[in-house]
């Protein structure tokens, strides 16, 4: 079966199932940011170690996603999607009983593997079963689940933590995912074409070394220092692994991940834009709860409420962005989204200990609107310029690189804040942490400025999009 003969009823059922499962799985990507202070206390670990429950999750997802390009074309759609859901549920169960950080990390890795499969498949499925004129709109609604859910998760997590403890986050997710799993048994169908394809073990191992080495290396710079042996070794492994992986893909008959699609300019720009977006987005999602709880001393519930208006703004704007993309093209959305994100980050540079909480809450709203402008439209725009038979490779490559960028962002920006606070302790005293936060958002502003430059100077205006199918 393929997307051209899927009935409207079946298409709607599949979309609803994807929406439910992706909301639950996406929430777990950031829900632990609010829970981090409580988790570090219960498990007797430091913040730099605890943040790997978020960035390590992204790392495992990033390593899994290149594999999905092979899995999607090799195994029936329904069976593979349900397998991803099963892995995610198993990871949730482990986290509910985990007595130590290592066991909990194992549960997070299982969740990441399941989420990596579901996320990559969801995009390929939706881009396949819906006609061209509806892709922007449907991806906008899908974007609501994968972008608003991670932003609203800290709000819900804050309330749950204060009421019943941090493990209740996983109990709620288990209930939602179990309902979605049962629904998926009846709703899903094999909508993607499959073929006999040999699994290239060497390419998979090289991709794991490439993504893992670079992420671990950059993510631990704040702990060991840039020129320390562990960091240099990890970065060397990552770079060499990446070069060997790319070389192999260009010289084998059936690439594990088709990298030749990067010759399409629009797709390459969408990859770069998505990476910069995730770098800043995931960094700010980790920093904001630390700012409200650890620096200002408010509760987890208050921390969540600071991000709630932004979540609501994104819920309203994400579907609208999809429709705007269908009508206006990418240029205007790209420029507007990048400019809004730059404005929100620059605003946080000037935040002080005495600032009313409404100010960071408003800045977070602006940030969330920018995410709604960019996240799914970038995917739709980039993949629409790639031949249809390479959609699985395009979504897997884009999702992998942006997820790895998110993991790097979470680790790097926490490191910048920590180092800046330590170095300025003698000068700023009790205000050293807030100074570290200001420096961190200044660094985020630099990354966002690069994003805006891509939008202004490299993306061409489109009166009517030409979808290359």
Distance between the termini: 19 Å
Shape: globular
User: Helicity range of the residues?
Assistant: over 70%
Largest sheet: none
Query: Unreliable segments (pLDDT under 50, ≥5 consecutive)?
Result: 463-469
Beta-strand percentage range: under 5%
CATH architectural designation of the largest domain: Up-down Bundle
CATH class of the largest domain: Mainly Alpha
Give the rounded overall mean pLDDT.
83
- The CATH topology of the largest domain: Growth Hormone, Chain: A
Q: How would you name the CATH homologous superfamily of the largest domain? A: MFS general substrate transporter like domains
Structural class: mainly alpha
Order of helices and strands: HHHHHHHHHHHHHHHHH
Number of domains: 2
